[in-house]
């Protein structure tokens, strides 16, 4: 994977719901760090490599109405927060915040009601929930056992750290 940006050219890189789909996580982390400028911020959110996540995201979430398509998640690609921290630290990006995320039950119910009234064809139209195709509202939680967000800054750890 090679991003179409010059080395150290971006002040902020966001990888949302991406890492858990990549087969070469070390190369992806190296590439994210390569394009990030010194002092630049990296924001990622991904699925955790835990039993809880495998049960909730693969067995349950993929079977909920409007959930992700069955089979979209390969638990072998889920990323434990410590592994992500170590991979990024090897490229000079230190994680300064790791927090769990969870879907908002209120937004999910609101989205289901909207879909029931308007059907899939109404998704994303004016007046509907933002991103009406999916449940987009995520709330912070202390547990990083399912979905988590990490924020890091390039240059906050030595590139030699393992």
Automatic annotation (TrEMBL):
GO terms for molecular function: S-adenosylmethionine-dependent methyltransferase activity. Pfam families: Methyltransf_11 (PF08241). Residues 2-44 form the Methyltransferase type domain. InterPro entries: Methyltransf_11 (IPR013216), SAM-dependent_MTases_sf (IPR029063). This is Methyltransferase type 11 domain-containing protein. It comes from Candidatus Protofrankia californiensis.
């Amino acid at each position: 994977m090679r991003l179409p940006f010059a080395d150290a050219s971006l002040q902020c890189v966001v990888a949302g719901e991406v890492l858990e789909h990549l087969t070469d996580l070390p190369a992806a982390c190296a590439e994210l760090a390569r394009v990030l400028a010194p002092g630049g911020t990296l924001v990622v959110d991904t699925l955790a490599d835990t039993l809880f996540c495998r049960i909730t995201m693969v067995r349950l979430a993929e079977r909920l109405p409007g959930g992700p398509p069955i089979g979209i998640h390969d638990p072998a690609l889920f990323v434990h927060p410590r592994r992500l921290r170590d991979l990024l630290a090897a490229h000079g990006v230190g994680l300064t915040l790791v927090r769990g995320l969870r879907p908002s039950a209120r937004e999910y119910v609101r989205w289901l009601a909207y879909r029931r009234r308007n059907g899939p064809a109404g998704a994303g139209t004016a007046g509907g929930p933002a991103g009406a195709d999916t449940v987009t509202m995520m709330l912070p939680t202390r547990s990083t056992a399912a979905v988590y967000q990490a924020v890091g800054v390039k240059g906050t750890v030595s590139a030699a750290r393992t």
